């Protein structure tokens, strides 16, 4: 743990007391410079840009700058930090026009903190598919953060969903709304005659040559390895679905901030179900 000065908000900023954050695959891969492109971004030999990691958070507005009009002290929010990072801390300043929305009252701070990365990535991926009720899609890696959001959002959009995960997570993934669940540990997904209008690769581990065998003519492959620009409307939309109970964040484990090393170690096993939460304050 490192001690730094508590930030002071500028006139157009808010100061957030962070309640919860998460460990995503992007967090630990950036820390380890895996893949190598992360090392090019963050320094070949030692970190040069990122002092405090963390892509997403929830919290309470502690202070507001004199020019702020959208938030007031005491507002509960969740936010996406993007490449400015900084969620692994007790406090963070945001410009009031950054990617921040008010937290639904129906969600805990832990649940809300997990929405920006996994939820918005899943939404962006699904928006690449023309929404036609009954369209058949396959979601590979359905038990992770992006996967669990993908299943729920796909059903909300009216798709017929085949989810792929390990056998121990089959019932859990089915409870999220999947029409069919395939256990990849006991069944070769390419051995089936089923073909799909679209495939969501929610973990980015399968070769395209393998996935293409499962597509119908003119079918699409959308991978988490793509680049997706998260926007304000995405967070607002996801918050509205969560408030209505349509979207339910899935939490696997929770760790206090001083145990964040253990949380990263667990994330690196690729065995998490949904999201790993870090409780800050």
List strands and helices in order, with pairings.
Blueprint: E1 13-23, H1 25-32, H2 36-42, E2 56-64, E3 76-80, E4 91-95, E5 100-102, H3 109-113, H4 115-126, E6 136-140, H5 145-156, E7 160-165, H6 170-175, E8 180-183, E9 196-201, H7 208-212, E10 215-223, H8 232-243, E11 251-256, H9 260-267, E12 275-279
Parallel strand pairs: 6-7, 6-9, 7-8, 9-10, 11-12
Antiparallel strand pairs: 1-2, 1-4, 1-12, 2-3, 3-5
Helix pairs in contact: 4-5, 4-8
Key features of this structure:
281 residues; alpha/beta; 27% helix; seven-stranded mixed β-sheet; Rossmann fold; Quinone Oxidoreductase, Chain A, domain 1
Q: What features would you describe in this structure?
A:
Helices cover 27% and strands 26% of the residues. Helix 4 (115-126) crosses helix 5 and helix 4 (115-126) packs across helix 8. The strands form 2 sheets. Strands 1, 2, 3, 4, 5, 11 and 12 form a 7-stranded mixed beta sheet that branches. The model is unreliable at 36-47 (pLDDT under 50). It has 2 domains: 13-114 and 249-279, Quinone Oxidoreductase, Chain A, domain 1, CATH 3.90.180; 119-223, NAD(P)-binding Rossmann-like Domain (Rossmann fold), CATH 3.40.50.720. By secondary structure, the protein is α/β, with parallel strands linked by helices.
What is the strand tally? 12
What would the principal axes of the Cα set say about the shape? globular
Distance between the termini: 14 Å
Spell out the CATH superfamily of the largest domain.
Medium-chain alcohol dehydrogenases, catalytic domain
Class from helix and strand fractions? alpha/beta
Radius of gyration equals 19 Å
CATH topology term of the largest domain:
Quinone Oxidoreductase, Chain A, domain 1
CATH architecture of the largest domain: Alpha-Beta Complex
Which H/E pattern describes the elements? EHHEEEEHHEHEHEEHEHEHE
Mean pLDDT: 90
Query: How large is the share of residues in beta strands?
Result: 25-35%
Helix fraction, binned, reads 25-40%
């Amino acid at each position: 743990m490192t001690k730094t000065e508590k930030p002071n908000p500028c006139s157009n900023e808010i100061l957030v007391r962070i309640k919860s954050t998460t460990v995503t695959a992007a967090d630990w891969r950036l820390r380890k410079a895996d893949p190598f492109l992360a090392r090019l971004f963050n320094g070949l030999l030692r970190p040069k840009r990122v002092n405090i990691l963390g892509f997403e958070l929830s919290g309470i507005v502690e202070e507001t700058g004199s020019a702020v009009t959208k938030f007031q002290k005491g507002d509960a929010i969740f936010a996406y930090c993007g490449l400015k990072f900084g969620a692994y801390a007790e406090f963070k300043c945001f410009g009031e026009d950054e990617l921040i929305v008010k937290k639904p009252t129906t969600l805990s701070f832990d649940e809300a903190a997990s929405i920006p990365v996994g939820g918005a990535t899943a939404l962006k991926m699904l928006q690449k598919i023309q929404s036609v009720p009954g369209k058949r899609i396959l979601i590979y890696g359905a038990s992770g953060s992006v996967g669990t959001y993908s299943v729920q959002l796909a059903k909300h959009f009216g798709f017929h969903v085949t989810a792929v995960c390990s056998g121990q997570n089959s019932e859990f993934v089915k409870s999220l709304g999947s029409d069919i669940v395939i256990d990849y540990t006991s069944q070769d997904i390419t051995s089936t005659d089923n073909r799909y209008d679209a495939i969501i690769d929610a973990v980015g581990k399968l070769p395209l040559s393998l996935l293409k065998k499962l597509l119908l003519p003119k079918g699409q492959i959308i991978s988490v390895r793509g680049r997706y620009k998260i926007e304000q409307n995405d967070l607002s939309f996801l918050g509205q679905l969560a408030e209505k109970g349509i979207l339910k964040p899935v939490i696997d484990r929770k760790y206090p901030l001083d145990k964040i090393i253990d949380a990263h170690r667990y994330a690196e096993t690729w065995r998490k179900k949904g999201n790993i939460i870090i409780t800050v304050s």
